[in-house]
Known about the structure:
DNA binding; 2 strands; 5 helices; Arc Repressor Mutant, subunit A; WH_DNA-bd_sf; mainly alpha; single chain; WH-like_DNA-bd_sf; two-stranded antiparallel sheet; transcription regulation; globular; DNA-binding
Amino acid sequence: MDNLNYSSDExxxxxxxxxxKTRLVMAKKLSNDYWTVSEFVTLFEISQPLVSQHIRKLKxxxxxxxxxxxxxxxxxxxxxxxxxxxxxxxxxxxxxxxTKQQ
Length: 102
């Protein structure tokens, strides 16, 4: 946790990104395992384009990485992201059920 000094703009951007309930739950799920877009579609009961948009925002911030396995694309929280440890600390108290999150 040596690199936990952030500007107010950096923290505000991160909090804004994770301030969306869907992305917050996605980040929690992605911190524990690889997930596909279709798995999130099923979990949240929202459209594939909307899930893809949320993932794109997380990827644009370098918080999520992807791994291709055949035709499938698997996503996971990026352990090399500067904010990785901070995000894990923010997500630690978050309790989520396996039911619809929205």
